[in-house]
Amino acid sequence: MATHRSRPLWSRVMRSCRLPGFRSSWPRGPLGARHLSQEKQATETHFGFETVSEEEKGGKVYHVFESVAKKYDVMNDMMSLGIHRVWKDLLLSKMHPFPGTQLLDVAGGTGDIAFRFLNYVHAQHKGKQKRQLRAQQNLSWEEIAKKYQSEEDPLGGSRVVVCDINKEMLKIGKQKARAQGHKAGLAWVLGDAEELPFDDDKFDVYTIAFGIRNVTHIDQALQEAHRVLKPGGRFLCLEFSQVNNPLISRLYDLYSFQVIPVLGEVVAGDWKSYQYLVESIRQFPSQEEFKEMIEDAGFEKVTYESLTSGIVAIHSGFKL
Ligand SMILES: COc1cc(O)cc(C/C=C(\C)CC/C=C(\C)CC/C=C(\C)CC/C=C(\C)CC/C=C(\C)CC/C=C(\C)CC/C=C(\C)CC/C=C(\C)CC/C=C(\C)CCC=C(C)C)c1O
Ligand SMILES: C[S@@+](CC[C@H](N)C(=O)[O-])C[C@H]1O[C@@H](n2cnc3c(N)ncnc32)[C@H](O)[C@@H]1O
Fold first, then answer.
1. Is residue 110 part of an annotated ligand binding site?
2. Which of 93, 106, 137, 240 is the Cys-Cys partner for 281 at CB 3.0 to 4.6 Å?
3. Cβ neighbours of residue 153 under 8 Å, at least 6 residues apart?
């Protein structure tokens, strides 16, 4: 079977040499590459509103999530007044996993998407079991109890792999998994979205929630998503997007720049990481631009849904 090492040679060589032209037109934010010289295009990018070298960015992003890991979940509930939970639930209902789904959750951090997936497939499997038992009306209650006990896989064959580049985020995720009683069907892998440590054609669904904005080469991460998905597999991305209503946009800016970093400082003792959060949101492409990037990576039937006036969007695409 082909492995992740089997990426075309030109791709590997151009990537390691950082030749101009390898990158797509991204980044295109206010301080993005389109304002830079041809030579600098291959080496400079943005970290929030700051211009940094591509080599520097990964380390800076790593430091942000290492720093916020312990307060990450509480901060999300506070900053979003719990709304991020609704967005994540919507991602799961859009996915509507079938029994036996193999999910890869990239930039999975503290496991929010993975735990939702496990709860979803568990409930789905239980429901299916109940329906089957109801259909077998002639069974005695002892036989029904026996059938329940002999059930070996309560997830019906579904599995999720959480992959994240940050050890601290994964550590918190594993602690949460233990506390919530998740063990079966869950694996944690340290890895980079730009160079996934998985074989080709391995997963039915690839998710990335609030992760892709932090990746240095978004085009590379999208190509990797395409590579590891099975033919017919689905890409789903939940990410901050563009608010189009001018009034809401004004309020949103006020809240983002005046409140979020203050909350970051008060709750997590970390102004800078939350300043990076709001700045990185402004650097991310619009719904339509991101849709094009997903198509460029080879996905088909690409669609998106804007949620909460476009504060976030869910993009979907298929490897056909
Ligand atoms: C370091 O990197 C990160 C760290 C992290 O912890 C998380 C992430 C990734 C993010 C997530 C996993 C998602 C969860 C996190 C967030 C949603 C935080 C980011 C928040 C924003 C960019 C702002 C938008 C927030 C929301 C839509 C949540 C709801 C909040 C409100 C409705 C605001 C209510 C607050 C107040 C009333 C307090 C007083 C506010 C002011 C004085 C400022 C003025 C503000 C307003 C008048 C209202 C604000 C209005 C809006 C936000 C727009 C309203 C929208 C609609 C009506 C649709 C990570 O990468
Ligand atoms: C805002 S958190 C999102 C966590 C989780 N998906 C959620 O929705 O709560 C962003 C995550 O992206 C991870 N990340 C950043 N760059 C990455 C990369 N190149 N490869 C894999 N993960 C990365 C960070 O370590 C962090 O855990």
1. yes
2. 240
3. 125, 184, 185
153 is in an annotated binding site: no
Q: Which two structure tokens, joined as six digits, stand for 149? A: 């006990």
**pLDDT at position 16:** 32
Identify the nearest ligand to the CA of 79 by its number: 1
What mean pLDDT do residues 124-135 have? 80
Cα–Cα distance, 320 to 299 (Å, whole number): 7
> Ligand 1 centre from 216 Cα, in Å?
24
Domain count, the chain: 1
Does ipTM come in above 0.85?
yes
User: What whole-number distance in Å separates Cα of residue 259 and Cα of residue 274?
Assistant: 10
Nearest atom (ligand 2) to Cα of 109: 27
Compute the distance from residue 128 Cα to the ligand 1 centre, in Å: 39
Q: Does 108 reside within a domain?
A: yes
Residue owning the nearest CA to atom 2 of ligand 1: 277
Q: What pLDDT sits at residue 153?
A: 83
For residue 34, the model assigns a pLDDT of 34
pLDDT bracket for residue 154 (50, 70, 90): confident
What is the domain range of residue 284?
Answer: 44-133+154-319
Residue 66 lies in a domain: yes
Q: How far is CA 169 from the centre of its chain?
A: 13
- Is 232 inside any structural domain? yes
Distance 174 CA to ligand 2 centre (A): 15
**Residue 111 beta carbon below 6 angstroms from any ligand 2 atom:** no
Q: Which atom of ligand 2 is nearest to the CA of 105?
A: 6
Which ligand number lies closest to the CA of residue 72? 1
Longest CA pairwise span in the chain (Å): 77
The CATH number linked to 271 is: 3.40.50.150
Kindly state if the Cβ of 303 falls inside 6 Å of ligand 1: no
Contact 194, 216 (CB under 8 A): yes
Residue 22 lies in a domain: no
Nearest to 29 by CA among 209, 261, 290: 290
